[in-house]
Every structure is written in C-alpha cells, then in structure tokens.
Write a structure and sequence with these properties.
The complex is a heterodimer. By secondary structure, chain A is α/β, with parallel strands linked by helices. Chain A has helices at about 15-25, 40-50, 65-75, 90-95, 110-120, 130-145, 155-165, 170-175, 180-215, and strands spanning about 5-10, 30-35, 50-55, 80-85, 100-105. Chain A contains nine helices and five strands. Chain A is globular, with a radius of gyration of 18 Å. Chain B is elongated, with a radius of gyration of 34 Å. Classes of the chains: A alpha/beta, B alpha+beta.
C-alpha cells in the first residue's frame, strides 16, 4: 500500500524536523512537503498534493485557520489534523469549524500523531478530550443564545461527555451498549453539525452584510 | 444523576461508609496523617500480643490459687484481641472503653487468682501488670497526650490496690513492693504520655503538610490569573493602543494640511473600523468575566493538577464555568487527594479531570484508566483508603456538595464531585438535600 502523503506546517524548523523524523520512521506515512506559513501551505498543497496536512495554528502572516479554510475550499479531499500548543482553545474550535478533522496537542507522542494521521486519512475525526469539552461548550453557548437552533441529541451529548472524560470509543460503546462503529458515527455527525453551523453562520452574516450595504 | 455515572458497579454514596475513628483532639485527623497513624496502630497491636504473651508466661510460672480462672481470663483477652485486631477497630471509641474495662477487671481479679500473700511473702511477680499498658497505648494513640496520661492514671488505681486484694495490706508492704507498684504506674504514665505526644505530632505534621499543599495550590492559581490578565493587556496593547496612536498621529498630520483628500480620511476610518471590531471581540470574550466573588473553574482545576507526578492529567471544562472563591481551597484539596491517589495506586496510563455544569450544579469528575478496585470496605480500611475517601467526601460536603464513586477491578475509577453552582436556587436546594440525607 502507498504510504500516506503528509505535509507538515509549522513556523519552527526544529519542530518540523522532529515531526518529519517521527513520521518517516513509520512505514505507513511519508512527508512530501513542509511549510512555515499559512500562505506557503496553501501553495504547497496545490503543488505536492498531500493526503493529510499536519497544521500548527499560530503562523506568521496567514494564520492556520485561514489556511485551513482556503485548503478545504480548494481541495476538499485533503484531511487536516491540527497540532497545536495548549492554551489556543478558541483557535482550535475555529479550525475544526472551518474543516479540520481533528486536534492533537503538541505534547502528543509520535505514536499518537501517527495514529491521528491514519485516522483522519480514513475519514475518522480525531476527537480528544479537550476538543470534546470545547465542542460541548460551543453547543451550550448556541442553545442558550438561540434556543431554536438544532443542538446535539441526548445521545451525542452523552458520547461527547465520555470522550471528554478520556474514554476510548470501544469503552464508550460498552458503557452505552452500542457498537464502536455507532460511536464513531455519532462523533462524525457531531463534527458535521459543527461545520454546517459554521457555514450557516457565514451565510447569515453575508446576507446581513449585503442588506447593510444596500441601505 | 445515575444516568451520568456509567458506574461499573453504580455510584456508591459514601455516606454508606461506616464512621468512627476521630482524630486526636476530637477533630477528624487530616488524611495526610493516615500513613503515620496506621504505622503507630500496627506497632501497638504488635505490642499488645507481646504483652499478652508475657502475661501468659508469667501466669505459667507464678503460684496460682485459681489457675482455671486465670487461664479463662487470658483466653477471653486473647479472643477479644484477635477479634478487634482482625477488624482493625482499635480506634473505635466503644472498643477502647471495653478494653479499658477488661484491663481494670484484670488488675482487680488477677491478685485474687494468686495464692494469698504471694505478692509479698514469696516476692512473686504480679503477672497481670503488662497487658493494661497496651490499653494505655491504644488510648494515647487515639486521644493524644491527655487521654494517654488519664488512662494511665486511671489504671494505676487498681494496680495500687492489687497487693491489698492479694491479702497484703498497705501497712505490711515491703519498700521494694511499694517501688514495684510505683514502677508499674510510672511505666503506664510514660507509655501513655509518649505515645500521646507522638500521635499529636503525626497529626500536626500532617496538618502542616496539608496547609502547605493548599497554599501551593492557591499560589499557582493566583499566578495563573495574573498571567491571564497580562495576556489580555498585552493583546490590547498590541492592537487597540497601537491603532489609537496611529489614528492620533495621522489625524494631527491631516489637520495640519489645508485640504485633506477623502482617501486619507477613509484610511483612518478603516483603521478605526478594524480596531473597533477587534476590541469588540476582546470585550465579548471578557463577557465571560466571573460573577462577583467567583473565579474561573478551569484555572482552579489546572492549578490543582500542578506537580502531580507519575500520571499525565488532562483538564477539560465546558466553559465558561465559575467557582465561588471561598470554595477553591476545599475543592482543590479534594481533587489533589484524588489525583495523588491515582498517581500512587491506580497504575493508570492517564487521568482526566472533566467539569461541566448540570442543572445549575458544578460536576467535576476525576477518572483514570488504572486497575480500579472492588468496593470492599474491610479491604479499603486495611489499605488506608477509607480515611482518604472520608476526607474527600468531608471536604465536598463542607461545600454543600455530594461525592460519588464508581470503579471495578481492571476498569479504572471515576470519582464525581457535585457542588452547588456559584448562585441560584438550585444551589440551596442541593445543600438542603445533602443535610437531610446526612441526618437520615
């Protein structure tokens, strides 16, 4: 099987080298490009056609979130896994909303990063505990600000809470008496809901702006 | 609520745990004192058996007039000691009183079991003198210096009358006999006093350790808040203040000119526009400003995990969440106890602290993927876990909250704290309920 083509985006060369070394050690992944900035990343995706982009969010000039938005727009088949330092929670949520498939902390081990790459490549979101907390908070905010909005189902809520507590999908399946596959489906649906909401918000914003202009 | 505890054995309210074992001086001992106190208790149990054995050896040697009675008494003592030691119940108040009663009875009856006058005439040793010292030590370990000395003084009375009961009046006692009795009393006093002081020292050291821990957690929290404040002012400085300076500078330049092209003014408007939006975003984030007298729960939880070694801890909160500032100390301490227990005993690869708001309550759960345990009170008491759980539960109830525990061997452990939120009627209702449960 062809190894997964990975691109590493980070403004620190040392970090890029480290991640490259980790990924090259694994048979299943290969680093095909590196970028030190969001703008460079958008161009590199066009020329080197990676399967998965490992993306830092704090980048000079073009931010990670903007780059993700552009990459997803142009090449929807490219999967994006955010690798970010702790304390950048609001950016992380934004990145996932505009199309990233998951989020790992930079403190993650090499094995965790490789497993994350494999998972997003298969179309599975990488939902860590802290991200689950952010998503729960986001849906709570939405439901208090706008009670009419479709929120999470009770089951989705339960699944997210267990993810936030650090349970694996298999353990969650056992606790809720559902299959691991069903748990995966719930997680995927939650991510889709989040991204749909973002698109809806943008649309509403655009319409409002359009109306303002006409006045 | 049970729906939330995907309890492998279900949530067990810790109010079902047996109570008992007050600390030195009436207050419950800090959980940190538990290892030291356990060592002391175990040492005293060993001494008990040695004392009993010595009593039996002497009983076999001395001139008994009622040997059957003496051996029956020793048998009762042996059964009593075996039973209590097996249940680790020496710090229970009722057990200590019974033991004291047995010691008094032994001192009063033993002289009558020896041949009349044996204690004076043939100078035989008083075989029952050793066991009561064990009683003194047990009381001292549980009630401290004063309790130990008081027990010793009490037991000295029957000891002093032992010769009279044996038929040797005070006037007929040889001076060496008087010295013997006095020596016994002094041993009781010294034993009780020393062990009492020792027990008090253990508790004091533990209390100091605890307040040092609490202080460290508070310091860490203050540092985190300061950092947050600095980050905010840095952000304002970088964006808004810079832009204002630019607007002022350009504005001055433009007013100096006789005619100003609309494009230049447009530029200024653009800068103001951008910054207005940036500032609004900052302020919106600050709309999460804590309610009066509250602090961000996340900061508290993160501070509580500082310095936990041996297991990586992830903190996840469904923000924004607030905690009453007054509750910070107790909650941090309870979380630290839970995490330290995980780090020391659970053999877990990870631990998470997860907090969310539910029906106006703050729910904090500490979960690990370690070995877990079956809920076995005896065993937990032996492992010294009961004291720890009681201490955590005490802290949470102090805040008007509840604690739940779920675990099973090989399947990790989850401890859940439910606290009333910073405000609202739900908070009051919960604490009222907790008080009621306590009484029933």
């Amino acid at each position: 099987m062809e190894p997964i083509r990975v691109m590493v985006v980070d403004d620190h060369p040392v970090w890029r080298d480290g991640v490259r070394a980790d990924l090259e050690r694994s048979e299943g992944t290969k680093v095909v490009a590196e970028a030190s900035d969001g703008g460079e990343a958008i161009e590199q995706v066009r020329s080197s056609m990676p399967d998965v982009v490992l993306m830092d969010l704090r980048l000079p000039t073009v931010s990670g979130v903007d780059a993700i938005r552009a990459i997803v727009e142009e090449s929807p088949h490219v999967k994006i896994l955010v690798l970010s330092a702790s304390g950048e929670e609001s950016d992380v949520l934004e990145a996932v909303k505009v199309g990233a498939s998951g989020y790992l902390l930079k403190s993650a081990t090499a094995d965790e990063i490789i497993a994350g790459v494999l998972r997003v490549h298969e179309g599975e979101p990488v939902f860590t505990g802290p991200l689950a907390g952010l998503v729960l908070a986001e849906f709570r905010r939405v439901s208090t600000a706008d009670p009419g909005e479709p929120g999470l189902t009770t089951r989705e809520n339960e699944v997210l809470k267990l993810v936030a507590k650090g349970y694996t999908y298999r353990e969650i399946g056992e606790l809720l008496f559902i299959s691991t596959k069903t748990v995966q489906n719930h997680v995927r649906n939650i991510l889709t809901k989040l991204q749909l909401r973002k698109r809806y918000e943008l649309m509403r914003y655009a319409i409002q702006r359009g109306l303002d202009r006409k006045e | 609520m049970d729906g939330q505890m995907y309890g492998l054995t279900g949530g067990i309210p810790l109010s079902t745990l047996a109570s008992g074992g007050g600390g030195v001086g009436g207050l419950p001992p800090p959980a940190e004192a538990e290892p030291g106190r356990r060592g002391l208790r175990q040492g005293i149990v060993v001494f008990r058996w040695a004392a009993l054995l010595w009593t039996a050896v002497l009983a076999a040697v001395v001139d008994l007039s009622h040997p059957a009675l003496a051996w029956t008494a020793l048998g009762i003592l042996a059964v009593w000691n075996a039973g209590v030691s097996f249940r680790h119940a020496w710090d229970r108040v009722d057990v200590r009183w019974v033991d004291l009663g047995l010691s008094v009875a032994l001192l009063l009856t033993a002289p009558a079991m020896m041949r009349e006058g044996a204690l004076a005439v043939s100078g035989q040793p008083f075989f029952a003198v050793a066991y009561p010292l064990a009683t003194v030590l047990t009381w001292a370990a549980s009630t401290g210096f004063i309790g130990g000395v008081a027990t010793a003084a009490l037991l000295f009375v029957p000891l002093a009358f032992s010769r009279a009961i044996n038929g040797v009046g005070f006037d007929r006692l040889a001076s060496s006999e008087v010295v013997d009795v006095a020596t016994g009393g002094i041993y009781y006093l010294m034993g009780g006093g020393t062990v009492g002081l020792f027990a008090r020292t253990i508790d004091r050291a533990a209390a100091e350790l605890r307040s040092a821990n609490d202080e460290a957690a508070l310091q860490a929290e203050r540092a985190a808040r300061l950092q947050e404040r600095e980050a905010l002012s840095r952000e304002i400085h970088d964006s808004v203040l810079q832009a204002l300076a630019l607007v002022r500078k350009r504005g001055r330049e433009l007013t100096a000119r006789s005619s100003v092209p609309g494009r230049d003014i447009g530029e200024l408007v653009q800068v103001a526009d951008d910054q207005e939006r940036a500032l609004r975003r900052l302020l919106q984030r600050r709309a999460d400003e804590p309610p009066e007298g509250s602090v961000p729960l996340r900061t508290v939880l993160e501070a509580a995990t500082y310095g936990i070694q041996g297991v990586p801890v992830t903190v996840t909160t469904v923000d924004p969440m607030w905690l009453r500032a007054d509750d910070v100390g107790e909650l941090s301490a309870a979380i630290r106890q839970a995490l330290e227990n995980v780090a020391q005993h659970a053999r877990a690869s990870m631990a998470t602290v997860f907090a969310e708001e539910e029906d106006g309550q703050i729910v904090v759960s500490i979960r690990d993927d370690g070995v877990g345990f079956s809920y076995d009170e005896e065993r937990m008491r032996r492992d010294g876990k009961l004291g720890l759980l009681r201490s955590m539960r005490g802290r949470i109830e102090e805040l008007g909250g509840e604690m739940h525990l779920s675990s099973a061997p090989g399947r990790g452990t989850e401890v859940e704290f439910r606290l009333p939120g910073p405000s609202g009627p739900a908070a009051k209702a919960t604490s009222a309920k907790a008080t009621k449960d306590e009484r029933s």
